[in-house]
């Protein structure tokens, strides 16, 4: 989830196309006919320009190869499951299943996205200009897929496959250069980062690689790999082949949020894109059939906020503006490109679905960093927002000169109310949180939902209730000790939140809290086992919101075994109904989704 400038070559053809999207551009059909003599003259000019361009690029490449040295970033021993894996090449059968897959479990594909850096791991560079490095959220996207197929006799057959998302920058580095080529352009010495910006732009037409490593979404029967650094990549989820960029018939030319939302009632897809230059944020609404941009507007933010998610209700779009900022001027002055401004303001905006910047009602809230939302909905005169709120940002990490491992370790440190502690202790521990935004009075009320016994993030719900009032939410529970000891987040369990039910008899640990925390059930994993990509799978023809299962990748660091757990959402604390051992290691990643599919028999 990194950055891309608007208009930086977003629409390029993949090397292989297996499907024709209704919005794929066909340039040849729109080219006017040119007389033969003029056409030959133009070909000569183009050939001369191309030769000059190629010569200049060779000089720039030679400069980079001579001046910049790529080196591997060293993983801490407790970060071993961040190491990349190889593509396996074809689906393999999965036979090791503990427990029983329910007959009511739908056929489909469980997909999870995550970074899998090329060439052995993340790199940093050194030159006369200083050092720059890729940050922990970077690394080429790799999809991990579990196929759940049931034959005519009701017998389950499972398969596993993985594959890189074949972005243009991946194709170039892997198949053309076959070595690291893009310079790290986010973290490091200011002069080295600025040089990386310029040299990447000159050589490749964009300042960063297209990572496409964060989430997988579906819209109108098509599937996309998404991340904040690039345009969506359409995916054939049967083969995991990348089919090219989705630009909504050339109507969208900037990064695309990792968490778009389907609007209740209409089925339209509400998207958001950020950029380091104006317009800093745009919101778009894509038709239910995915063929056209129904509405597009500049939000007219006064700064570039690294917003990761957008919310929706029946009538509104919910916009987060928190003080994790992207500032090119700050970088040029010698500061950080991305920075969490502790004294900065935070706002939540409520915009009518097809509104503009002037129609947004803004609410000032306490400074925070909220990367992920459970849900948003309308209640009487209020818009209610539920999310996972922290007081610091995990992106990009420490300021220049600070020890990266120690910085993360301190901020993941378990918080004990009675102990003496530094202000930074536990600042990355996010908690379930509520904002109630009164559209009539302009007042914003906010509170912790669950106390601070456990930190949680990567929330999700039954997606049928997106934008509507819901009773249940789910999240991954952070193991703060393991996270602190490894300098990276590790999730040692799952949580089920009962939004309408108080936690009877439990006293809030938070000073000034007047409302009792809500009820939370926990499904904790075995020691040294950690989960990623958790998602809700509704039971076929279910009538109740929590009638289904939670599915998640789980990795045991002692046995180095990767599994998929399936947990009954109604019997949440019970043992998983099935544990599926995978034939290959799956590194920790980001978001997952279960896509119901009717396989051809």
UniProtKB/TrEMBL annotation:
Binds 1 Fe(2+) ion per subunit. InterPro entries: Carotenoid_Oase. Pfam families: RPE65 (PF03055). GO terms for biological process: carotene catabolic process. Its cofactor is Fe(2+). Keywords: Dioxygenase, Iron, Metal-binding, Oxidoreductase. Fe cation binds at residues 259, 308, 372, 591. Signal peptide: none annotated. PANTHER family: BETA-CAROTENE DIOXYGENASE, OS06G0162550 PROTEIN. Belongs to the carotenoid oxygenase family. This is Carotenoid 9,10(9',10')-cleavage dioxygenase 1-like. It comes from Cucurbita moschata. The lineage of its organism: Eukaryota, Viridiplantae, Streptophyta, Embryophyta, Tracheophyta. The gene is LOC111445898.
């Amino acid at each position: 989830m990194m950055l891309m400038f608007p208009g930086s070559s977003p629409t390029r053809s993949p090397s292989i196309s297996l499907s024709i999207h209704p919005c794929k551009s066909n340039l040849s059909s729109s080219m006017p006919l040119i007389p033969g003599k003029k056409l030959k003259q133009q070909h000569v000019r183009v050939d001369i320009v191309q030769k000059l361009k190629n010569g200049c690029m060779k000089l720039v490449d030679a400069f980079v190869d001579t001046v910049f040295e790529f080196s591997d970033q060293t993983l801490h021993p407790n970060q071993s499951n961040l190491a990349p894996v190889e593509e396996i090449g074809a689906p393999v059968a999965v036979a090791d299943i503990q427990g029983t897959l329910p007959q009511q479990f739908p056929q489909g594909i469980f997909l999870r996205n995550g970074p899998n850096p090329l060439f052995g791991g993340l790199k940093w560079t050194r030159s006369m200009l200083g050092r720059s490095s890729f940050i922990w959220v970077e690394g080429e996207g790799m999809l991990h897929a579990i196929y759940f197929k049931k034959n005519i006799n009701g017998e389950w057959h499972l398969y596993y496959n993985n594959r890189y998302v074949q972005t243009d920058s991946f194709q170039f580095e892997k198949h053309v250069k076959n070595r690291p080529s893009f310079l790290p352009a986010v973290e490091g010495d200011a002069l080295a980062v600025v040089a990386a910006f310029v040299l990447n732009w000159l050589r490749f037409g964009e300042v960063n690689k297209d990572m496409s490593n964060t989430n997988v979404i579906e819209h109108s029967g098509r599937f996309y790999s998404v991340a904040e650094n690039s345009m969506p990549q359409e995916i054939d989820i049967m083969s995991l082949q990348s089919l090219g960029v989705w630009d909504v018939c050339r109507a969208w030319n900037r990064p695309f949020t990792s968490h778009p939302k389907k609007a209740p009632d209409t089925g339209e897809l509400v998207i958001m894109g950020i950029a380091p230059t104006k317009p800093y944020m745009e919101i778009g609404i894509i038709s239910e059939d995915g063929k056209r941009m129904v509405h597009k507007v500049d939000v007219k933010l006064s700064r570039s906020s690294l917003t990761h998610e957008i919310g929706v209700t029946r009538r509104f779009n919910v916009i987060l503006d928190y003080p994790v900022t992207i500032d090119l001027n700050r970088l040029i002055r010698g500061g950080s490109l991305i920075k969490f401004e502790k004294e900065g303001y935070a706002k939540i905006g409520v915009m009518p679905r097809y509104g503009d910047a002037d129609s947004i009602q803004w609410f000032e809230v306490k400074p925070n960093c909220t990367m992920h939302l459970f849900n948003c909905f309308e209640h009487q005169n209020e818009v209610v927002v539920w999310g996972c709120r922290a007081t610091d940002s995990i992106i990009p990490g420490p300021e220049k000169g600070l020890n990266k491992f120690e910085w993360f370790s301190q901020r993941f440190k378990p918080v004990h109310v009675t102990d003496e502690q530094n202000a930074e202790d536990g600042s990355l521990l996010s908690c379930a949180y509520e904002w109630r935004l009164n559209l009539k009075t302009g007042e914003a009320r906010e509170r912790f939902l669950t106390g601070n016994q456990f930190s949680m993030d990567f929330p999700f719900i039954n997606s049928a209730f997106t934008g509507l009032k819901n009773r249940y939410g789910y999240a991954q529970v952070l193991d703060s000790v393991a996270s602190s000891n490894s300098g990276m987040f590790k999730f040692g369990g799952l949580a089920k939140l009962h939004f309408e039910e108080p936690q009877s008899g439990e006293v809030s640990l938070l000073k000034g809290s007047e409302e009792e925390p809500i009820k939370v059930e926990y499904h904790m994993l075995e020691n040294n086992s950690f989960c990623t990509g958790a998602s809700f799978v509704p039971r076929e023809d279910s009538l109740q919101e929590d009638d289904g299962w939670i599915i998640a990748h789980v990795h045991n660091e002692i046995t180095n075994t990767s599994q998929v757990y399936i947990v009954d959402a109604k019997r949440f604390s019970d043992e998983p109904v099935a544990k599926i051992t995978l034939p290959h290691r799956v590194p920790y990643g980001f978001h997952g989704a279960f896509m119901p599919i009717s396989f051809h028999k």
